[in-house]
From TrEMBL:
PROSITE patterns noted in UniProt: HECT
Name of the protein described by the UniProt record: HECT-type E3 ubiquitin transferase
Key word Membrane present: yes
PANTHER family: HECT-TYPE E3 UBIQUITIN TRANSFERASE, UBIQUITIN-PROTEIN LIGASE E3C
Native species: Smittium culicis
Record-annotated active site: C347 (glycyl thioester intermediate)
GO molecular function annotations of the record: ligase activity; ubiquitin protein ligase activity
Length: 379
């Protein structure tokens, strides 16, 4: 996309300007401790100038050797996103029906919380600037809001299909008598830190009963609560953090779908293309029997299994802009036939595959590995 090319040009300009103007480092360098990942990242980003934030990111984990050639950076984003979106932080909740994340309603908005929320926005911005696909599950409504595009009832379907269905029934299915029998007021409940709370959709909403005549007002107010009033303060700092990195002029030239694709990639899993551009190491070649077995198996996987394999190997079930041709997918020989399962190095998109003696054994081992990939086999 043209906007992506513009971003690439800005990165190159920043690099060469730094090289020839006496600046000691043309990169945004972060040195973080694994046990203090969120805090260290917040503290260091706060000290950086806007110009520094728009340099190519290099990450070093304190006490560990190695130059960041992309693998460390990718691991940094994976670990940071996993920690930030953990529900123990209370910043986001996960809808179990849709597996989508959204801002927790009316949290304890102290200064530290707001710093962390701003960091989440900056992480999205840094991912855009460094072409890193993030394994996050926001609904399309998030990208609309980032670009100032209004959200409506239909946007709720992706986030909360059950609530969407209930509101649709109120609007289009229920008779006046059925709505009356709901005994619903303009007060709604939600959970905050495991505790049930209530919110007045309008002033004195607890005394204002839902009826056939005011059902449109009720539905519109409920949707506005979910997407706007319940998360207004935290979304503002989140958006500020994102725009600190990418800049409003760049963001506003994108559509919400384009922005989502840049951050999260696409879901177009063309495994023929993945096969064509795959790389082999450790002695494997494309015509090695176990490699032939592998492609025969995975090209016949269901969409869900293909997504699981991609997540197992790369840390994300999404595809970067430009498709799987842009992903350096590596199959590495990991010993001879054994009882071991395949493993992976997600930082390098590498699948470590023992040289199994039969296609059936490979299929059984591979499916076992990817079905148990959360916290197992991924490094």
């Amino acid at each position: 996309m043209e906007n992506s090319m513009t971003m690439r040009t800005e990165l190159q300009d920043s690099f060469f300007h730094a090289m020839f103007s006496g600046v000691t480092c043309p990169y945004l360098v972060l040195e973080v401790r694994r046990d203090w990942l969120v805090r260290d990242t917040i503290c260091q980003l706060q000290l950086k100038s806007p110009a520094d934030l728009r340099k190519q990111l290099k990450v070093r984990f304190v006490g560990e050797d190695g130059i960041d050639e992309g693998g460390v950076q990718k691991e940094f984003f994976q670990l940071l996103v996993r920690e930030i979106f953990d529900e123990k932080y209370g910043m986001f909740y996960n809808n179990t029906d849709s597996n989508m994340c959204w801002f927790s309603p009316e949290p304890e908005s102290d200064a530290l919380y707001m710093q962390e929320m701003r960091l989440v926005g900056m992480v999205l911005g840094l991912a855009v600037y460094n072409s890193v696909i993030l394994n996050i599950h926001f609904p399309h409504a998030l990208y609309k809001k980032l670009l100032g595009v209004p959200v409506y009832l239909n946007d709720l379907l992706q986030l909360d299909p059950s609530l969407y269905s209930s509101l649709i029934k109120i609007l289009h299915t229920f008779s006046p008598e059925e709505i009356e029998s709901c005994d619903q007021t303009f007060e709604v409940s939600y959970k905050q830190n495991g505790q049930h709370q209530t919110y007045q959709l309008i002033p004195n909403g607890s005394t204002y009963k839902l009826s056939f005549d005011n059902k449109i007002e009720f539905v519109n107010s409920y949707v506005d609560f979910i997407f706007n009033s319940s998360c207004e303060s935290q979304f503002e700092v989140f958006r500020d953090g994102f725009l600190d990195i990418v800049g409003s002029s760049f963001a506003m030239n994108l559509s919400p779908l384009e922005l989502e694709l840049i951050i999260c990639g696409s879901s177009d899993l063309d495994f023929d293309t993945l096969d064509k551009y795959a790389v082999y190491d450790g002695g494997y070649k494309r015509d090695t029997p176990v490699v032939e077995y592998f492609w025969n198996i995975v090209k016949n996987f269901s969409i869900e299994l293909k997504k699981q394999l991609l997540f197992f190997t790369t840390g994300s079930d999404r595809v970067p802009i430009g498709g799987l041709a842009k992903m350096k997918f590596v199959i590495v020989k990991n010993g001879t036939d054994s009882l071991r399962l395949p493993t992976s190095h997600t930082c390098f998109n590498a699948l470590l595959l023992p040289e199994y003696e039969s296609e059936s054994k490979l299929k059984e081992r591979l499916i076992t590995a990817i079905n148990n990939s959360e916290g197992f086999g991924m490094m």
